[in-house]
Design goal:
By secondary structure, this protein is α+β, with helices and mostly antiparallel strands. Helix content is about 45%, strand content about 15%. The strands form six sheets. Strands 2, 3, 4, 7, 8 and 11 form a six-stranded antiparallel β-sheet that branches. Strands 6-19-14-15 form a four-stranded mixed β-sheet. It has a three-stranded antiparallel β-sheet with strand order 12-13-18, covered by helices on one side.
Length: about 625
């Protein structure tokens, strides 16, 4: 019980040690037991286009086998396969992997990938290969951090000895530093670290080549950084001889198996995350004070004045009570509004459940692709609340075309996003990238959509239409009241734009870390902080929407339905604007397709964020309007 409590507390504070699900048990390796090394993919932060490992001239095993992949791995572009590396437990060896005659076309491709800063990803005992680096913090302390994978090569410069300026060099020697842990509680040893030190060496040998070290007279042993590196001369017309080698070094470690992911999950100084929380709480306290003032002072005064029994002494009605006969008038495009609210509620429920499961450790990075797989599945299952809220809201608007409303809720936004990704997938496929979604996977997603999500939306809509509906507290006139001219600062455009600033301000610091993990290919695992930020976001969206809705009604503008959605939802516009700034200040993406990928994904994410925050704002205003008009007496 003590360990479970500590894990939950650590997850809440953003320092969660990796939690493993049943079935992901540690493996104890006995001496001389084979340790498999699997190859994953090639990735680059400059292109955002992953490629198959064997798309480049690397040594292949006799038979290449694909590992079983889940939906998340496929969508990430992972292609996990076996490799030609032969590693035995506790055996420190130097081996020649193979010798290759690389043809001109492959030489040019290899040089291009090096210039594009591609990294190679390997897997051992479910641990990703990592390169160690020492980073100096602002306080002067040096910390050890790990980057996933190792660089494919480097570009020569005048400051680097034995290299030619602007010439690519390939890392053709890998030094595996494998950390293991032993304990009296189990036999054998557990692997708790997988480091890779890449080196570039222009191997030289005498006599006939052989992969048998007893027969090969290799002149570049021992391998070190002082040896001449292996260039990849893409401008020449000659094939390239490449000799791949590796050596293995075993190191004992005090790190326990359950904590071996901690180095990968390091997210920097936690003070930044706490600053984000404190910054968001300041916004919430400000809004809460404004809402409290409206509720406790202004509204109480309004209630006392509007409910005055002596009608002769009551002055002419003014303020928000004056529009009581129009405030519940159904808005235009009610079906589209309800479809947006249903999808927003589906996304919000998915976010809450996904973050909660991640906080408890059920979506550990040890389960590759698990987070994305679980998120998609949870979204499909949340079709019930989507249909329920859409149908119930549409029923309160006196809508009669309930079938059209339900179909639009189930299909409108999913079909738009699916169409966008289908077109984007065509561009990725033209680049021969493994990030292109296979046709079979797209069919599987469509089957999940039509076979699971859509029926659940109809099920939720059935219960939503059957649910008891509370009658509006006031009756609506047949003839709409004319809305007086509004001051510029009370106009719909200005109010909508102002309403999105505070919700975005509540999350933008944490948003930086999320975007860094996505676009700079790092792990994000501080879901405890993310849960707090989500809670603060909900409160902020609700309060800013209520405040602006109250001011709108006081100015006798009763068209609050759509504006309540757009007010807090406009934070999605600020999110997209921030993504544009992030692109030019933090990223080094090159090429048309990678740029298209970035802005397409960020536009979709900003739209999803708009739906979530807009839905929170709408239902906050919905309950607020029902409450205040139900508390007054109307003839």
């Amino acid at each position: 019980m003590g360990r479970s409590s500590s894990l939950l507390l650590a997850a809440f504070l953003g320092r969660a040690s990796c939690f493993y699900l049943p079935g992901v048990a540690p493996h104890e390796y006995m001496p001389d037991e084979r340790v498999d090394v699997k190859v994953n993919k090639l990735s680059s932060t400059k292109t955002q286009l992953p490629f198959d490992y064997y798309s480049l001239p690397f040594c292949r095993p006799v038979e290449v086998n694909n590992a079983v992949e889940n939906l998340g791995e496929v969508l990430h572009g992972s292609v996990i396969q076996n490799s030609a590396y032969e590693i035995l437990m506790h055996q420190q060896v130097f081996k020649v992997l193979c010798r290759m005659e690389v043809q001109v076309a492959d030489v040019k491709k290899l040089a291009q990938r090096i210039l594009e800063d591609y990294r190679v990803h390997l897997i051992m005992d479910n641990l990703p290969a990592a390169t160690k680096m020492i980073r100096e913090m602002p306080d002067g302390k040096a910390i050890t951090m790990y980057d996933r994978g190792y660089p494919l090569g480097f570009v020569g410069s005048k400051d680097r000895p034995n290299t030619i300026d602007k010439t690519p060099y390939v890392y053709n020697h890998l030094r595996f530093v494998i950390k293991f842990h032993k304990d009296i509680g189990f036999t054998g040893a557990r692997i708790v670290g997988f480091e890779v030190e890449p080196l570039s060496v222009k191997h030289q040998y005498k006599g006939e080549f052989s992969t048998d070290m007893d027969k090969l007279n290799l002149l570049t042993v021992p391998v070190g950084p002082d040896l001449p590196p292996q260039p990849v001369m893409s401008k020449g017309a000659q094939p390239l001889e490449l000799i791949y080698t590796y050596d293995v070094k075993w190191e004992h470690s005090d790190i326990k198996w359950a904590s071996r992911w901690d180095l990968y999950l390091y997210m920097g100084d936690d003070q930044i995350h706490w600053f984000s929380i404190i910054n968001s709480l300041a916004i919430v306290l400000l809004l809460t004070g404004i809402v409290a003032m409206i509720m406790m002072r202004t509204l109480r005064r309004d209630f006392n004045r509007y409910n005055e029994q002596d009608k002769e002494d009551l002055q002419e009605e003014s303020g928000w009570k004056l529009v009581h006969a129009d405030v519940f008038r159904p808005p235009p495009a009610a079906i589209f509004l309800c479809a947006s609210l249903g999808t927003g509620m589906q996304l919000f429920a998915m976010s809450v459940v996904s973050i909660f499961c991640a906080m408890l450790g059920f979506l550990s990075p040890a389960n590759r692709g698990g987070l994305l797989t679980a998120t998609i599945l949870i979204f499909m299952l949340m079709g019930v609340p989507a249909g329920y809220f859409s149908a119930h809201t549409y029923k309160s608007l006196k809508g009669t075309e309930w079938k059209a409303a339900t179909v639009m809720t189930a299909t409108l936004f999913p079909s738009v996003f699916f169409g966008v990704f289908f077109i984007l997938n065509f561009f990725i496929w033209c680049q021969n990238s493994s990030g292109a979604i296979p046709f079979g996977t797209m069919v599987a997603l469509l089957l999940m959509w039509f076979g699971l999500s859509a029926p659940l939306v109809f099920l939720g809509a059935f219960f939503g239409f059957k649910a008891k509906l509370t009658d509006p507290p006031t009756r609506t006139n047949e003839i709409p009241r004319q809305i007086p001219n509004q001051e510029w600062y009370m106009g719909s455009a200005f109010n909508v734009l102002m309403g999105g600033i505070l919700p975005f301000g509540a999350i933008f610091i944490e948003l930086f870390f999320i975007m860094t993990s996505v676009w700079l290919q790092r792990f994000y695992y501080v879901f405890g902080f993310l849960a707090l930020v989500l809670l603060i976001l909900v409160i902020t969206c609700a309060e800013i929407s209520i405040v602006l809705c109250y001011f709108q009604l006081c100015n006798e503008d009763y068209n609050w339905w759509w504006r309540s959605l757009l007010t807090s939802g406009s934070s999605g516009l600020y999110l997209f604007a921030y993504s544009v700034m992030y692109f030019f200040t933090q990223l080094d993406i090159i090429g048309f397709v990678p740029t298209l990928i970035y802005f397409t994904y960020m536009f979709v994410f900003a739209t999803l964020f708009f739906l979530v925050t807009g839905t929170i704002g709408f239902y906050s205003c919905y309950n607020f309007v029902w409450a205040i008009y139900g508390a007054i007496k109307v003839d």
